[in-house]
Amino acid sequence: MSNQWLITIGINQYQHFQPLNYAQADAQGLWNLVVSRGSFMPDRCLLLTDTSPFIEGQSTYPSGENLKQWLDHLCQQAIKKDDLVWLFFSGYGVKWEGQDYLMPIDGNPDDVSATGISIRDIYEKLKSSKAGTILVLLDMNHQQEYQDGSTVVGNQTVELAREMEIPTVLSCQPGQFSYEVGELQHGLFTGALLEGLRSGAGLTLASLKRFLSERVPELSQNYSRPLQEPVVVVNPPGKSHQVILPEQPVFVGSQNGERNSATAQLVGGGTTVASAVAASSVENPFQAALRNQQEAATTTSSTSPSNGQPKPADTAGNDDEDDENSSLWQQILLWGGGLALLLLLLLTTLGRNIFFPATEQAGSGGDSQVGTVTPTGKLTPLDRAQILLRGNQANSYVLAIRQASQIKPGEPQYREAQASIERWSRNILDIAQGRANTRNYRGAIAAASMVPQDPQPIFTEAEKLIRQWTPLAKRQQANQVVLSTAKGLIRPNSASSYVQAINMARKIPQGDPGYVQAQASINLWSQNILNLARQRANEGNFRLAVVTANLVPANTIAYNPARQAIAQWQTR
């Protein structure tokens, strides 16, 4: 089973650069969001900020040395084949001698090559991890005086992303600048990113690109900032419909093997601390920090960045009274965590107008605070539609579209409702394409069939894809019947029955849906034949062992070992 990993870095108090206001809030905001919506297990979400806590006795202070050590550990030891990995960075980026660098908290513009972390090194580490899906999100601030030569920060990153086929999102075009917005309490790009993930626009790379390409310039205009346009690099283009969030929510396992709860606290003032109940049955590289982040909630933004969060104190004693009460307290904490998660999900669903006002507030400045919003006390049809959204579930978008369609022309929120309907229709189609990319053609057709007739262009595209996927789904179903029939031919301890099953499975043509599964079964069955031959050789029946090994078909993983074994047994 694949895992989901988040590495999120946000740095405010640089030692050699002008401090940033909201980089730490950017990193913490993304951590809170993906954990609260259940997309990632909190024990696989690493937070590296000015004040993040120790983990297993290891500092998460975002110095160059620490960042390199954490990347090495995760890419070499923790991340496995087919895992999903997100890397997010909010801080300074610098170009030096044609190379792009991310600057850690102790990065020095006068010695970039020694104190910065090159983008190439980061991408090579991520590529070496063998992760199945990688997404890099870079909200890079940069200062004009630290750019040399004729090119600017970002050009090399774009080239590397294409070359190494790592999907990458940059906060702005090379030559533009990435801005912070006091009203959002975030960088402009990250504010749009969080909004898109909340609204379901980040299910695939295609939908995320579409949302950010529209929303980031819109926010820069709303908040009177120079134009900022994100860059989304996807190579090959077929990865555009790759699902970048899990199809189903990820739950943390409890001590009895059932679901556990994960909560994320939202604290104002630039310092947010996450807390979670980690799975005791899963190896957890971040377990110590997760157990003790509740204690870390008392830490304020005035904490010395050189120390990060204090190390958690040892738990003392085996007091009998504590043992008797521990079960009660565990239940209280579990229910409390569940209520906190429910409240957080409600707030993130309804909170778009709070965190992302449609128009700039009067007298706003770069460091101004979020204005006070008075709740109306009554949900609008569009509010009710947004409540219905459930991650990657296509039917939830259908229900939301039906609800939003109740808003008639001339009514308040009509234009916003129409824009939402178009976006949600596109999200349904993205879900369908994501399923088709994994060869789940029946699921893809089911999702595409839910696309409403209006907007017409999206409906037309869905109909075209359904016609394309229908014959593939039929072949897939037929090939599944073939493979099931092949499996039914197998009899234990009968090598010839494995041969019959292999011959049946080989009827599935290369390139057809189900071909990969058929080849995997063929290799498994050929190995079973060889195992039977070895068993007979161990019993001293070398003649029968040779006869059995000769049944191993060519072009299977067991063929060469079988020929070697035959050569040995024929001399006995």
TrEMBL record:
Residues 7-220 form the Peptidase C14 caspase domain. InterPro entries: Caspase-like_dom_sf, Caspase-related_regulators, Pept_C14_caspase. GO terms for biological process: proteolysis. One of its GO terms (molecular function) is cysteine-type endopeptidase activity. Signal peptide: none annotated. Residues 290-324 are annotated as: Disordered. This is Peptidase C14 caspase domain-containing protein. It comes from [Phormidium ambiguum] IAM M-71.
